């Protein structure tokens, strides 16, 4: 998945509509240019981009073909996705791509959720609350539980788990603050809070709260660096993707 905000927000005003049209026109122009310079890709680019009148139709076609099977026809999926884009003007693509939770219920949508998990290797519960500006870098092996909450501008690499401990019910999954960076293979379990601007090192297992603007690594995770102060110009780890800063005299402080 690309970096940045995964939320698709259709514009509200005529001026924005025109801007959206110009952006889509530019995408199609670039696709035509690529098709001319690389003829082997011409058929693919035409079917997925050039032949479609809008982003919604292009995405619906692309997802329908990605997720179709002998029992889930691409034409059926195309209609489902396009209807979702049309009926919900503030549609979360992360929700669409990973669970098709939206406002729909039923066996078909459960089957589609299972199919999406199989194809993309990502399992996000439709009830999880996810902010904007999310980056799933590589987007493989990510698991996010039902009561998890993810703030804005959060980045996580592959094989990250936001799960439960198995000991409690109800509100049992992590709460991730704004600007958090979670390294590859990190596991965060239980109703714990990861503070704003914190970093979780690759392969770490976090079972208790992590303060804001600190770095936690290891199994079990320990604090190896931190700045408790907040400032207007401080970096946002989820945006900078810097895994190495905040290292300081805290190396022996166990969280």
TrEMBL record:
One of its GO terms (biological process) is cysteine biosynthetic process from serine. One of its GO terms (molecular function) is serine O-acetyltransferase activity. The keyword DNA damage does not apply. Keywords: Acyltransferase, Amino-acid biosynthesis, Transferase. Gene3D superfamilies: Hexapeptide repeat proteins, serine acetyltransferase, domain 1. Residues 1-22, 217-242 are annotated as: Disordered. Its EC number is 2.3.1.30. Residues 23-114 form the Serine acetyltransferase N-terminal domain. One of its GO terms (cellular component) is cytoplasm. Residues 225-242 have a biased composition (Basic and acidic residues). Pathway: Amino-acid biosynthesis; L-cysteine biosynthesis; L-cysteine from L-serine: step 1/2. The keyword Electron transport does not apply. It holds the Pfam family Hexapep. Belongs to the transferase hexapeptide repeat family. This is serine O-acetyltransferase.
